[in-house]
Write the structure tokens for this entry.
Amino acid sequence: MVDTIAAIATPYGEGGIGIIRISGPDALEILNKIFVHKGNGNIQPRYATYGSVVDPEDGVMIDEALAIYMKAPASYTAEDVVEIQCHGSVVSLRKILALVLKMGARLSEPGEFTKRAFLNGRIDLSQAEAVMDVVKAKTDRTFDVAISQLEGSLSGKINEIRHHILDLLVDITVNIDYPDEDIEEMTYDQLQTSLSLIGEMIEKLLSTADTGRMIREGIRIAIVGRPNVGKSSLMNLLLKESRAIVTEIPGTTRDTIEEALTIRGIPVYLIDTAGIRQTGDVIEQIGIEKAKEAFNTADYIIFIIDASQPLNEEDLEILSYVNGRKSLILLNKQDKGNQVIATDIANKSPNSDIIYTSLIRGEGIEEIEDKIEELVYGGEISQEESVMVSNVRHTELLRKSKEAVSDAMEMVLRREPLDIIEIDVRNAYDDLGEITGDTVTDEILNEVFSRFCLGK
Ligand SMILES: Nc1nc2c(ncn2[C@@H]2O[C@H](COP(=O)(O)OP(=O)(O)OP(=O)(O)O)[C@@H](O)[C@H]2O)c(=O)[nH]1
Ligand SMILES: [Mg+2]
């Protein structure tokens, strides 16, 4: 027995309109009890009807509203859905919701509308997850990836791979069950070919995971260096506003400053830090500890050196930590002279990119943004790549599936019996099924939908 759920679907606050959403077998009946329409006739599916919401017990009108009825299965949840559009007032929305609940609906849990859409087979699990990504997207690029997943791009790819695995499973099973029949015998060579093809397909999807994660979740970039090299100047330039205090006094920034911004469609959390040096100042010392913490937890480091002066010990010490991290080194203050050149530091942190900048003149910002873009797209994945794995849950399942394929491959090479190989192939199939929700436990479902907002 499915009950009828309701929730306020629009954000809490003032707005032109607000929407209460009802889904379930009693949705229309509840609407009819509380809605008095101005015209004649009944509420028609897919028409907006103007009227007012009235408490049937005392006849008191709550608000003017438009009611829209979407008849099952042509609705978001594939159940009967009613939306009541009233004024975007917290009071009106709360009162109407209370009335709807009094008429027999239950307050929905977070994500329950979307969960029903999934349970009723209208969308698969990865599409349901994409709904929340669409709602939460802060940049164009994040939004594009989420929309494409919602449209089923990832599901399509996963189903294609699962189809290949299923074909293989059928062949294996037939060979196990009817070894003596006159069917084409499965050779280990054939198995090997199929498994490596499947492995490659999974690998190709996995190769988009880093980029996908960064686009979905954003990247944390820490700006570090000794005092007075231009860290706060960079922060302000990238933010295009005067957020951090910039002075010629070393030790100006004492606390870490974190700001969210968008660079070329990528969500970025930028952290300006206190200049790292030996100091007796207690406050500055705490700031430096925080700077080190930001350094340790960042995805990407921008290390600034004042190139108008020779490298000092502090620079060299920071450089030794930068080495091995994904990082960009700026040789700043080019306008004031050039005491440090790329070759002086290249061997001390061979994998860092190095750029010459004059932040006071705003020179080098384009190149810095280029590097951030490169970091995210890795040079291999194009901006237009449509199928991208962005969700950590999906990435983990793809990895598990890939491992199962590798295990199966190992067994094939060792010429193990088919029924043993079959177990791993089946695992690979089920792992991918967890992405689309074909093979999924209630626990996972609850976990996924608990992260949704109310009314979605
Ligand atoms: N000539 C020159 N001066 C610069 C450049 N970049 C920054 N400065 C100046 O250097 C001084 C320090 O800049 P900040 O951005 O405050 O440096 P910081 O690294 O944040 O310093 P702390 O917060 O003290 O660690 C300011 O006077 C800036 O105007 C540059 O490219 N050339
Ligand atoms: Mg500063």
